[in-house]
Specification:
The chain is α+β, with helices and mostly antiparallel strands and 473 residues long. It contains 12 helices and 23 strands. An 8-stranded antiparallel sheet has the order 18-14-16-15-21-22-20-23. Strands 1-7-8-12-10-11-2 form a 7-stranded antiparallel sheet. Strands 3-4-6-5 form a 4-stranded mixed sheet, with no helix packed on it. The structure holds flavin-adenine dinucleotide. The site of flavin-adenine dinucleotide has 33 residues, from strand 5, helix 2 and strand 12.
Length: 473
Amino acid sequence: MQAQRFQDSDDVSASGYTPTRMQEARPSVKKLEGLSGWGRYPTADTAGIRPEKARDLAPVEGRCLARGLGRAYGDAALLSMGTMLLTERLNRFLDFDDQTGVLRAEAGTSLKDILDAMVPQGWFVPVTPGTKHCTLGGCIASDVHGKNHHRDGTFSAHVPRFSMVLADGTIVQASPIENPELFWATCGGMGLTGVVTEAELKLVPVETAYMKVWHVRSQNLDKTVALLTDPGYDAQYTVAWIDCLAGGSRLGRGIFMAGEHAKKSELSLRILNPLNPPAKGTKPFPVDLPGWALNPMSIKSFNWLYNWIQGSRKEFICSYDQFFYPLDGIHDWNRMYGKRGFLQYQFVLPMRTAFQGTKEILERLSKNRKASFLAVLKRFGPQGQGMLSFPMEGLTLALDIPFTEDLLPFLDGLDDIVMRHGGRIYLAKDARMKPEAFRAGYPRIDEFCDIRKRYDPEGKFDSNLASRLGLCR
Ligand SMILES: Cc1cc2nc3c(=O)[nH]c(=O)nc-3n(C[C@H](O)[C@H](O)[C@H](O)COP(=O)(O)OP(=O)(O)OC[C@H]3O[C@@H](n4cnc5c(N)ncnc54)[C@H](O)[C@@H]3O)c2cc1C
């Protein structure tokens, strides 16, 4: 094995299955007031420790929960009356095998850390969400998906193994072969089975840091869905932006966007260093906008402009940052929604009901003038093995909606449509779903709870999301 060794991960062994007891270590506990997920709703007053070493992740007295970079939108990474185990300083690279592309790193390592170090060497992450500011541990716990789900599955499909600390302080290894039940309960298990301390990720080779992209305008939902499902338009990465304020004959109009990693031969000769695009700085979002700033009128104007600009771009080359992470270019862009924040609502419907269900939801949004800047429709491929993993074969729609008093009952109404059509709502984005909708969407919940009970009989690992949904209660 051609391995590059980066740094010792303390006493967290990654080879062999030898349960080890974590050393007692207690970094100081700090108060965390008004902590929230990325949507800024809800908030929680809690406490946390921010260990420098993986060995200090030993579960503390009382209940606890791991937190990465807090990019889950709702309350998945919040625990009131407990201790947050903040992992962001556990970001060391441990090994890289340039024959297999397998990188081993601590669980607080972010996708940004990985891309910054590995793209110049010709390697890319196999699956990425729409932000690179998320950790390996967070991506495993949410079993995140990307624009290539229909081809490459979820994040966990590319994780050969990880190590984790259990409720009794022992460290175990888990993989699809070693402790497979624990592995599949943890992938998508939202931190409720233990703390991932380090993980392996199989990177994919790329020739350049650029993407070859093409956009196609679509006039309505029929056309948008046809583009997403037609093999003639298929690419490694596909997604469609939807103008969710358009109604009538233009309901579901949008822009289909497809991309592939660009080959060297596809780049202009002016690009001298194909694996190192010039670094672009990020700009901060300077203030919390007032609640009224985002309203159907301002969003309608944005949608018109976005449709016009993006729809006019037919085929082009851009950096991977522009393709995968346009929002990361603006620091703290969630401040755009003001102090009350916003809710992200993402559901998936199985293929047989996907068109009808999505149409009903878009009609409801358009009729009620519930506007979303970011309405993204995507086709998912087959379901993976994570017991609480979100994706199933079908269509998924993600919406960001500014928080208003009437939003919660409105979304309950959308849940009814999702349940009626046999779908589910994404836990990493959720802040308000009711237990009935959760149970209807996640049929493997009892299997998950049996395994969790085996590894954590007292329910030490807990979250506000789990309490709200009555998960394993
Ligand atoms: C702009 C934006 C775009 C996004 N796009 C997508 C997308 O396209 N696809 C998608 O799937 N998701 C997407 N997300 C959601 C995001 O990828 C996930 O919520 C991811 O889990 C965030 O990682 P994190 O490190 O910030 O985790 P956190 O938000 O801190 O935590 C998320 C969950 O992981 C658990 N967790 C964190 N670290 C560990 C650990 N070491 N061990 C065990 N459990 C742990 C937490 O307890 C919590 O339940 C997006 C989020 C944003 C803000």
